[in-house]
TrEMBL record:
This is UDP-glucose 6-dehydrogenase. Its EC number is 1.1.1.22. It comes from Paenibacillus arenilitoris. Transmembrane segments: none annotated. The keyword Transport does not apply. NAD(+) binds at residues 30, 35, 86, 121, 155, 263, 327. Belongs to the UDP-glucose/GDP-mannose dehydrogenase family. Coiled coil: none annotated. It comes from the Bacteria. The active site is at residue 260. The keyword Protease does not apply. Substrate binds at residues 152-155, 204, 249-253, 257, 320. One of its GO terms (biological process) is polysaccharide biosynthetic process.
């Protein structure tokens, strides 16, 4: 069975490469000719550890190829994964225009049986919608199935997650589709859950919203820890040892960002509202997350009195380490507020770049961490890049104007930083 992956972004490129690694012949299709040209040359246009090596390997083996020719691609492949974006609409719902476009492309062009698999994160009911969109434009009566197969990979660990998933969720009522998907995933060792399409679609949103809830819970608790003089990291360790709670996603900080948690939580709240249900807990999760970067700024303002004309170094821009993805990065909320309060902002990230927006024109983007820190009145650490732990902080203190360190990811050791002579403030941790 030949596999076509439509949309060669983070998920599409990873999906294509993982299936190539499993021995399938895969084609990646995108409307963005520039992306396709780069991928064809073996160049990954985004930062994701390990992916470029695999891309080059499978361009070499001939198991992967890329194209912008959608008609030919759709006709030549039986299994078609939809991996296009589903961004937020202004009302909070998921923007389904790209998925609809792909469904119509498939419907208009198909020339035989197609298994259409939605990997994009899509609202409950999308499997039925995609079926309808295909049927509405079909030129012949070719059979097809639409299945839901949500993706759970994390950026920065995309390959590891996609090659070793915790589970594969298959949402279908068709035995033919189930059998084909079981065949496609035959070399993956993990539980395969076959369920109704609507259930599969909700499992994806429920997972992301649950993880976001864990984070906001810890972030709110961290604010109490600051008042009580209790260390949130130790609290997280203590509760995480209970397997019912688990150790992961208990890290307090300046909040979650990225292309998924904010949009998926908001899409789930929107879908609930459409169904006259209020997901009130998730409303609070969003509220805590939106105020969390400001919480660290408030702490810093207490210390500095005012940000006006202060030199502030922002270390770490990406929404998390090991990615250059700046979508909904909490560092941007911090920078926006610092700029509005007339601070002089110097930014450094090992790989990520500030968006080329007019609002960031006054920010100095530094090539070296020292350049950002030199003469600073405060450092804000916004992404927990491991390399920041290896920095010679004694040296950094020496080159700063005032040794104020606001650690938005609780990355550094507070005792060590205090011993060096920093004023150190984390989140629920000092
Ligand atoms: N980024 C992530 O870590 C994860 C994302 N997801 C979900 O996967 C989906 C895709 O996410 P990303 O890969 O981050 O998006 P992305 O924005 O990086 O990539 C989407 C790609 O689709 C292409 N595209 C749009 N319309 C097209 C069309 N009609 N035909 C062909 N290509 C088209 C775009 O040019 C782009 O390259 C979203 O629904 C997202 O929520 C799920 C799990 C993880
Ligand atoms: O649907 C998606 O796109 C993906 O969304 C997340 O993956 P991702 O956004 O790549 O990154 P995470 O590692 O989940 O981190 C998200 C945000 O939460 C923050 N976070 C994470 C963990 C934690 O304990 N505390 C915390 O603040 C991170 O800094 C980051 O800003 C999910 O973890 C994936 O399972 C899912 O497939």
């Amino acid at each position: 069975m030949n596999i076509l992956v439509i949309g060669t972004g983070y998920v599409g490129t990873t999906t294509a490469l993982v299936f190539a690694e499993m021995g399938w012949n895969v084609t990646g299709l995108d409307t963005d000719a520039q992306k396709i040209q780069q991928l064809e040359k073996g160049v990954l246009y985004f930062y994701e550890p390990g992916l470029e090596e695999l891309l080059r390997k499978h361009l070499g083996t001939g198991q992967i190829r890329f194209t912008t020719n959608k008609d030919k691609a759709i006709q030549e492949h039986e299994a078609i994964f939809i991996c296009v974006g589903t961004p937020s609409r202004p009302d909070g719902g998921a923007d389904m225009r790209y998925v609809k476009q792909v469904a119509e492309d498939i419907g208009q062009t198909m020339n035989g049986y197609k298994l259409v698999i939605t990997k994009s994160t899509v609202p409950v009911g999308t499997q039925e919608q995609v079926t309808g969109w295909i049927q509405a434009v079909q030129k012949g009566s070719f059979p097809f199935d639409v299945a839901s197969n949500p993706e759970f990979l994390r950026e920065g660990k995309a390959l590891e997650d996609a090659l070793n998933p915790d589970r594969v969720i298959i949402g279908t009522n068709s035995k033919r589709a189930e059998n084909l998907l079981r065949t496609l995933y035959r070399s993956i060792k993990c539980p395969i859950v076959v369920t109704a399409p609507r259930t599969a679609e909700l499992i994806k949103y429920a997972s992301n919203a649950f993880l976001a809830t864990k984070i906001s819970y810890m972030n709110e608790l961290a604010r109490l820890c600051d008042q009580l003089g209790v260390n949130i990291i130790e609290v997280a360790n203590g509760i995480g040892l209970d397997p019912r709670i688990g150790t992961s996603f208990l890290q307090a900080g300046i909040g979650y960002g990225g292309s998924c948690f904010p949009k998926d939580v908001s899409a789930l709240i929107f879908a609930a509202k459409q169904n006259h249900i209020e997901l009130s807990i998730l409303g609070k999760v969003v509220n805590v997350n939106q105020t969390q970067p400001l919480y660290l700024l408030d702490k810093a303002r207490e210390r500095l009195k005012s940000f006006a004309n202060k030199k502030v170094a922002v270390l770490g821009l990406a929404f998390k380490p090991d990615t250059d993805d700046m979508r909904e990065a909490p560092a941007l909320r911090i920078i926006d507020r610092l700029l509005s309060e007339q601070a002089k902002v110097y930014a450094y990230d090992p790989v990520a770049k500030l968006p080329a927006d007019v609002q960031y024109e006054s920010v100095a983007s530094c090539m070296a961490l020292e350049d950002a820190v030199q003469g600073a009145d405060a450092v804000f650490l916004c992404t927990e890049w491991p390399v920041f732990q290896k920095v010679d902080w004694t040296k950094m203190k020496g080159i700063m104007n005032r040794p104020n360190l606001f650690d938005g990811r609780n990355l550094l050791d507070s005792d060590e930083m205090n011993a060096i002579g920093f004023f150190y403030q984390g989140i629920g941790y000092e």
